[in-house]
Design brief:
Layout: H1 20-67, H2 71-126, H3 131-150, H4 167-187, H5 195-213
Helix pairs in contact: 2-3, 2-4, 3-5, 4-5
C-alpha cells in the first residue's frame, strides 16, 4: 500500500516573521497617526471654546445680575427707611403749616369783626369818622384781602346791588358784613375753598371803597 502524503492544515501554517525594521516603521506610523488625531481633536476643542466663550460670559453675567443684588438696589434698600422718615417729616410739616394758616385766617376774621364793631360804635357816638377810625378801616381792608387770599380768591371787582348812599347806611352794612364774614370763615372746614367767604370779602372791600368816597367821612373844619 502506498502512503498518502501528509497534508498539513492551512490554519496551522506559520506566519511570516517581520523584521525589526518593519516593526519600527509600522509603530512610527501608528504613533504619528495618533498624534495627528490628538492635534485635530485639540484644535476642535480650542475652536469650540472660542466660539462658546461669549455665550458662556453672557450667561454668567445674566446669572450674576439675577442672583447678585445690584449696588443701586442695596443702596436704595438702605436709603428707604431714611426716605420714609423724611417723607413723614415733610407730611407733618405740611399739616402743621396748613393748621397755622387756618388759625391765622380765623384770627383775621375775628380781628376784622372786632374792628368793624369798634368803628361802627365810634360812628354812632360821633356821627362821623375820625382819623383813628379811618386807620382801623384800613386794617379791616388788609384783613379782608388776607381772608380772600387764604380762601383762594383773587382781586375781582364786585358791583353791589344796593350800594350805600350815606355813611350811616354804610356803617350798618359794615357791621353786618363783618359779622357774616367771620361766621363764614369759622364754619368753613380746612382744605375747602369757600365761595361764600370769597364773595363776602369782595363785597366788604367794595363797601370800604365806596365809604371812602362818601362825603362827611371826616368832620368839616370850621
Amino acid at each position: 500500500m502506498s502512503r498518502e502524503p501528509l497534508v498539513q492544515p492551512t490554519g496551522n501554517r506559520s506566519r511570516p516573521k517581520l523584521s525589526r525594521f518593519q516593526l519600527q516603521v509600522n509603530w512610527g506610523m501608528i504613533t504619528q497617526g495618533v498624534l495627528q488625531l490628538a492635534k485635530s481633536f485639540t484644535k476642535a476643542l480650542v475652536v469650540l471654546a472660542i466660539l462658546g466663550a461669549p455665550f458662556t460670559i453672557s450667561i454668567a453675567a445674566q446669572n450674576s445680575q439675577i442672583h447678585a443684588p445690584s449696588v443701586d438696589g442695596q443702596r436704595r434698600e438702605r436709603d428707604d427707611p431714611l426716605e420714609t422718615m423724611e417723607a413723614e417729616m415733610l407730611a407733618k410739616r405740611a399739616i402743621k403749616e396748613e393748621e397755622r394758616q387756618y388759625r391765622e385766617n380765623l384770627e383775621r376774621a375775628r380781628d376784622l369783626c372786632a374792628l368793624g364793631t369798634t368803628i361802627v360804635s365810634s360812628f354812632k357816638k360821633k356821627n362821623w369818622l375820625d382819623e383813628g377810625d379811618l386807620k382801623k378801616l384800613e386794617k379791616v381792608e388788609k384783613l379782608a384781602k388776607g381772608i380772600r387770599r387764604a380762601a383762594g380768591g383773587s382781586e375781582d371787582e364786585v358791583e353791589m346791588e344796593n350800594p350805600p348812599r350815606d355813611i350811616a347806611s354804610a356803617m350798618e352794612m359794615l357791621e353786618t358784613l363783618s359779622q357774616s364774614l367771620k361766621a363764614n370763615v369759622e364754619k368753613t372746614p380746612k382744605h375747602v375753598i369757600s365761595a361764600a367767604v370769597i364773595d363776602k370779602a369782595n363785597v366788604l372791600l367794595e363797601l370800604i371803597r365806596i365809604l371812602r368816597s362818601l362825603p362827611s367821612a371826616l368832620p368839616s373844619k370850621a
